[in-house]
């Protein structure tokens, strides 16, 4: 028989999603795949119950229901500081995952290069490869995950078509400062690149850091494809509601790509989430206060256990240093952690281009009880997985 596609031949299954399955298998507290175990806002759930008996069961307009896009445009106009047109500047997608894929297919040709900062969320490389593009990587260097502008410029000299910018960043929690974004913007203009953003954690940015939308920088609107979703902001990761915001020239094309990929996001869910899109600033302040509390609770617990970790500036992930356990494979460590200690994590190697095996990622988008239970289990970590003796 003929072989299957070359493009997909190098893919492993998603390690993030695999770790959820492994956590379930061992009854582990699942801090691997990032999603909340608390309820979405009541206003959204109440509306969901009503929508079941209203007329929202057939396809919506392929690029998003009118009501949904209008509410989203009003909300994003407020945050992004420019007036977004709901008809010509938005495509509603099935999560930010589809938004990124559709953005990539709208922009790149087979053989093009796409620059990705490493560490990175694993879908970006897959999106590039599925679009026929070659990913090239620019390191974000710990502990503060800064990039070297010269290394970025070197990557840009190879004439890539686009840069993927995840801000706030999954998995390292970096929030790019305005100064850093200005450096990227200057280089993007100089080398004529598109910038595809993933800003799903736009409302989870810890003080004193601030989120700056790349598209809001001077002259960046024309070359930025802003991707985001409602998953994290309203705790509805399973609803798969995302979107692309970009200038009409790009959106016109992205609408077609999206239409052929998925036709559209779920119509009842677009309608049900509208009360969330209409929330006032109080909601976003409350969300941030909630995550700030969870971050402090969980990181303090890790400190008390003397586990070395980074201090995220945004998003809801933390990277832990597992060097002391002397594993050659962080995947094996995560399997042992789920099986022996009962806590699920994602191996850091699934995010880094560089050969990193000493980091694992937890997320803390969980109820306090869940986080405390995970910390409680981690107390037995060094008994159940003894540190490797130093030679
Ligand atoms: N963004 C989440 C994570 O990194 C979940 C991604 C997913 O599985 N779609 O864990």
In short:
The protein is an alpha/beta fold.
What layout of secondary structure does this protein have?
Blueprint: H1 6-9, H2 15-26, E1 29-30, H3 42-51, H4 66-80, E2 90-94, H5 95-107, E3 113-118, H6 123-130, E4 134-139, H7 149-157, E5 162-166, H8 178-190, E6 194-198, E7 224-229, E8 241-245, H9 248-262, H10 267-272, H11 274-277, H12 281-304, E9 317-321, H13 330-341, E10 343-344, E11 346-347, E12 359-363, H14 368-378, H15 381-384
Parallel strand pairs: 1-10, 3-4, 3-5, 5-6, 6-7
Antiparallel strand pairs: 2-8, 7-8, 9-12, 11-12
Plain-language structure description:
The protein has two domains: 7-40 and 282-381, Alpha-Beta Complex (Aspartate Aminotransferase, domain 1), CATH 3.90.1150; 54-277, 3-Layer(aba) Sandwich (Aspartate Aminotransferase, domain 2), CATH 3.40.640. Helix content is 41%, strand content 14%. It is built from 15 helices and twelve strands. Strand 3 (113-118), helix 6 and strand 4 (134-139) form a beta-alpha-beta unit. Helix 5 (95-107) packs parallel to helix 6 (123-130), helix 5 crosses helix 9 and helix 7 runs parallel beside helix 8 (178-190). It starts with 5 loop residues before the first helix and ends in a 7-residue tail after the last helix. The structure holds glutamine. Glutamine binds at residues 16-17, 33-34, 97, 121, 170.
Derived from helix and strand composition plus strand pairing, the structural class reads alpha/beta
- Sheet with most strands: 7 strands, mixed
Shape estimate: globular
CATH architecture label name of the largest domain: 3-Layer(aba) Sandwich
Total helices: the number is: 15
The number of distinct β-strands equals 12
Report the sheet-strand fraction: 5-15%
Helix content range: 40-55%
Cα(first) to Cα(last) distance is 52 Å
Main sheet: strand order: 2-8-7-6-5-3-4
CATH superfamily of the largest domain: Type I PLP-dependent aspartate aminotransferase-like (Major domain)
Mean pLDDT over all positions? 96
Bound molecules: glutamine
Highest-level CATH class of the largest domain:
Alpha Beta
Total domains, how many?
2
| SSE succession | HHEHHEHEHEHEHEEEHHHHEHEEEHH
Specify Rg, calculated over alpha carbons: 21 Å
């Amino acid at each position: 028989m003929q072989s299957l596609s070359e493009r997909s031949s190098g893919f492993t299954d998603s390690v993030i999603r695999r770790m959820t399955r492994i956590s379930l298998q061992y009854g582990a507290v699942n801090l691997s795949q990032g999603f909340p175990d608390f309820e979405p806002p009541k206003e959204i759930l109440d509306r969901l119950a009503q929508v079941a008996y209203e007329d929202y069961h057939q396809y919506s307009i392929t690029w998003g229901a009118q009501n949904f896009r209008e509410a989203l445009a009003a909300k994003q106009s407020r945050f992004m500081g420019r007036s977004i047109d709901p008809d010509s500047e938005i495509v509603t997608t099935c999560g930010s995952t589809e938004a990124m894929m559709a953005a990539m297919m709208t922009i790149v040709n087979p053989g093009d290069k796409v620059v990705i900062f490493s560490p990175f969320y694993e879908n970006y490389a897959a999106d590039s490869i599925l679009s026929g593009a070659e990913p090239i990587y620019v390191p974000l260097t710990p502990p503060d995950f800064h990039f070297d502008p010269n290394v970025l410029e070197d990557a840009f000299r190879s004439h890539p078509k686009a840069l993927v910018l995840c801000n706030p960043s999954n998995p390292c929690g970096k929030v790019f400062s305005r100064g850093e974004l200005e450096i990227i913007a200057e280089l993007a203009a100089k080398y004529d690149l598109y910038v595809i953003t993933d800003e799903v954690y736009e409302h989870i940015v810890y003080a004193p850091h601030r989120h700056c939308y790349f598209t809001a920088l001077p002259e960046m609107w024309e070359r930025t494809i802003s991707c985001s979703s409602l998953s994290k902001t309203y705790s509805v990761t399973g609803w798969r509601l995302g979107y692309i915001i970009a200038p009409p020239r790009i959106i016109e094309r992205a609408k077609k790509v999206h239409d052929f990929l998925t036709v559209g996001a779920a119509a009842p869910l677009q309608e049900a989430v509208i009360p969330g899109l209409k929330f006032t600033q109080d909601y976003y302040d409350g969300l941030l206060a909630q995550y700030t509390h969870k971050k402090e609770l969980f990181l303090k617990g890790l400190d008390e256990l003397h586990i070395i970790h980074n201090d995220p500036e945004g998003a809801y992930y933390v990277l832990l240093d597992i060097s002391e356990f002397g594993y050659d494979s962080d995947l094996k460590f995560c399997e042992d952690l789920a099986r022996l200690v009962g806590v699920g994590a994602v191996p850091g190697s699934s995010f880094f281009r560089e050969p990193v095996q000493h980091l694992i990622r937890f997320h803390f988008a969980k109820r306090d009880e869940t986080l405390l239970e995970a910390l409680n289990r981690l107390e037995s970590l060094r008994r159940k997985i003894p540190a490797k003796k130093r030679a």
